[in-house]
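Up-regulator of cell proliferation
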Amino acid sequence: MEGDDCGFHYGDGTNEAQDNDFPTVERSRLQEMLSLLGLETYQVQKLTLQDSLQISFDSMKNCAPQVPKDLPWHFLRKLQALNAEARNTTMVLDMPPDAWPAEKESQMEEEMIYWDPAEDIATDDIYSFSELPVPDTPVNPLDLLCALLLSSDTFLQQEVLLKMSLCQFALPLVLPDSENHYHTFLLWALRGVMRTCCFQPPRGLRSFREDSVVLSRLPTFAFVRMDVSSNSKSQLLNAILSPARRQWDCFWHRDLNLGTNPREISDGLVEISWFFPSGKEDLDVFPEPVAFLNLRGDIGSHWLQFKLLTEVSSAVFILTDNISKKEYKLLYSMKESTTKYYFILSPYRGKRNTNLRFLNRLIPVLKIDHSHVLVKVSSTDSESFVRRIRAIICSVARSPCRRVSVEDMAHAARKLGLRIDEDLEECQKAKDRMEKIIRKIKDVDAYKRDELRLQGDPARKAAQVEREFCQLQWVSDPPEKHRAELRRRVLELRVQQNGQELSSGVQEFILGISSPSLGERQYFLRWMEWGLARLGPPRPRQPPETLLTLRPKLGGASDLNEPLWPEPLGVEHFLREMGQFYEAESCLVEAGRLSAAQRRFAHFPGLAVELLLGGLPLELVDGATLSIPVRWVTGLLKELHVRLDRRSRLVVLSALGVPGTGKSTLLNTMFGLRFATGRSCSPRGSFMQLLPVAEGFSQDLGCDQILVIDSGGLISGALASAGDRFEQEASLATLLMGLSNVTVVSLAEMKDIPPAILHAFLRLEKTGHMPNYQFVYQNLHDLSVPSPKMRDRRQPLDPPSDLSRAATHMEKQGGSFRTLAGLAERQHVWHIPALWHGAPPMASVSLGYSEAIFELKRCLLENIRNGLSNQNKNIQQLIELVRRL
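Structure:
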């Protein structure tokens, strides 16, 4: 493939021979759709999350798909970037004349139109002119979604639904598979979706709480179609969910692009969406959270799904033009149901008298009255009709009604015979192991102290002594007595640590990540993340619109060990404990106190690297001690070198900035990564994640892997020049930037360059190692901004004088930051629009943000490709660099 075309090549791809994998019998609609989209090859070996994250030629392109086989990869790439237009499946043939096939060009020359000036008419019929190549038959977006989910493993399904939720798209709840007669309830796929909503107690101030949509018990309202309806239920649902003066297209509908294309495989799909209040009366169409369900297709053809909706909903709205004898019998069978039913009819379609006769019979059966029959007179009464529906929903929600969670829905679906994605044996075994660990955690602080014993004071003391010992390397003539004393103290602390035994919780965790089944390991990690996140009540949050604007105050804590905010218990604490055991043991082996044959924890780096290769971010800088556990990190990198074999050429990309400037969100949107976001739930340490480069692109890009480092909560932005924190932060910033080929500095304001980063610039200038810098100024406050140029070679303003003096004092230099200003003038300065379009929690990611992030990504990859990011490193060189820095 040429580097400049717009084809899509992810994973293993497909070829024409693979279209004939199925026997030569009449193909089902599902088989035809999978073949059309090039997904047949993924029916046995499913598409994985790592396949979708791979960096390839297409990572630098933003062109429209040209053939149906491009559509799944186009959708995944747009969804990864949180692009609001991801569901658009329009195909465009963008072929220049010199790319047309020779026979087509020759045919066009023979059929050119010649005009007779005298008669002013064409000598040939204009309609015989050869048509330009046209795209294949368009694909309905819902068919594309169903085909992709049926071809994906459960972890990619989970990621797809998470990204869809951030785009405010309706999410699939029941996935139809008509060919195999299996309908799957997507409980596991929905577990990763979290929402923040306003909580207003009867007395007291309102607050915001974050919780999983799977666990929240809410009033739920289903909208279904019976036979034919001239009213679009998806459009009606969108209107119900939309605040005044703004239309949300949460549910795909007939008036959207390709919305009228016939659905081939997605009839029977059940979608779910939610409304969560923001606490602003002018924006909240409902005062409390509400869930909405939408069944695609006719209830007569999808009775099982309809039965499920009647068992989990507070009320069901049935849209129809006709009620025939068949539909009457179906509804009559629901006479034992306690669900409330409402009918929405059109007065201009259907058989009026027949409808009235059957409705009168159904009124006593379904326990409804005439107020439950609504007639939508015309398109001109849409607003008043929507207000009426909202009033009904509010009335039902206020009254004693059924409130269910997605977990409750899954129990009902299981009884009806639907397959639950979470019922897989691997998933349940991993869940049981997680629960054995979580059950023992009654108090988080006590658990950290009693079960994670090598952390806390022992780790901090060891890190402090080793830091002092390291600093002696820069002293011209260090006293040997002092060096010997530091060695003795380090060894004494490590002996104490090595004398400890692994706690039962850590042992159980190690068993979980040691499972021979890759799937079970991945399930276990996800269960652990959610189980630990739910310890205690739901976390109070800041209002969603300010989540990215949280800024620490200048002059923060000067005590190095004082956390900037409470750190929640996470998976990283268990891996940190494993790292401390490995550090202590390695130190004793180096000192000759322990033989290599006596080692118990030498396999720990291999276990952790398996997690890194599976997509889990690993801690590079310990957030508790603000130090790098060098032996542990070296062990990880050595093991990574072995696992990658010959594909170990690295480019290191780091993102630095104060927590709250949106750097983790930026990295996640750019590359589909999993760095923690939101200051109230983020760990303090710096984390790294690995991105594989497709083999066909690695030669062109010049590397096999991209190691992405997020500085996390290390850089506080505090100016504490008299204390240790500023000096330590500056050293860590120097380390991260020194390891990097490319550094993204994420800033909120033009004068917001943290002093620790300024200090690192000056240090690196001395070494001659200057990575390619990209300064990113994010608009974190305004929700609507003019569209500035994506690339703007502006020079940042000089830093405030007090920060300048502090950093220059540290480096014993005079003058100002002319070097930094000159550097910024030569490098790119980016201005990124606001993240949200609308008011959270119902806001979607703005199209401007998504497009600007894609342009930044393309620029970064171009710089790597063109060699502007200094030379790539192999892992052995990276290990040496870690030791030196």
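Residues 571-590 form the longest helix (20 residues).
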